Amino acid sequence: MGRFHIYIDGAARGNPGPAGIGIVITDEKGKIIHTISKYLGQTTNNIAEYTALIFGMEEVRNKKAKDIIINTDSQLLARQLGGEYKVKSSSLKDLYNKVNTMLKSFDEVRVNQIGREQNKHADKLANKAIDNSVKGKKRGTSYILKSKSNIEELFGH
Q1: Distance CA 28, CA 151 (A)
Q2: Which residue, 47, 60, 50, is CA-closest to 5?
Q3: What kind of fold does domain 3-155 have according to CATH?
Q4: Neighbours of 67 (CB within 10 A)
């Protein structure tokens, strides 16, 4: 289907902390064809960045993409993929290896480190995923502390 641009962002509040990913996929002309906003749970920012890339690559692979341009504001991710930085973190090595395996699905792949201002949409999606999860947890929780049927089950009385 041609060339796709994947804009990715991973966010973690606390690093590690509540994390989310945001992905914007566009065609060659810049038309948005798909977005992803997903909560990851507790993890680091770097793991969230790699996870966003994997989700984005899976999506364009499903669309039969041949060429992709990855756009990220993560200097670490861009330079690790470009071979300038080594992957030292054991938690990132598996993700890095998965990305490299997935790269074989494409004819041409470019990685651009872009400024945050060029990645605002993906950033908003990543933060939206975290915000929606946090809001959901603040709704309130109910616990059964004591119930006749519960006590009878546990103690046979």
Answers
A1: 64
A2: 60
A3: Nucleotidyltransferase; domain 5 (3.30.420)
A4: 16
Closest CA to 108 of 43, 141, 150, 60: 60
Rounded CA-CA distance 52/11 in Å is 10
Per-position DSSP letters for 43-87, written without gaps between them: E-HHHHHHHHHHHHHHHHHHTT-SEEEEEES-HHHHHHHTTSS--
For residue 48 the two structure tokens come to: 């969230």
The predicted model scores a pTM of: 0.84
Q: Identify whether the C-beta of residue 48 lies closer than 8 Å to the C-beta of residue 40.
A: yes
Report pLDDT digits (tens) over 56-88.
999 999 999 999 999 999 999 999 999 999 999
Q: Is 140 helix (H, G, I), strand (E, B) or coil?
A: coil
* Residue 17: count of CB within 10 angstroms of its CB: 14
Residue type present at position 27: D
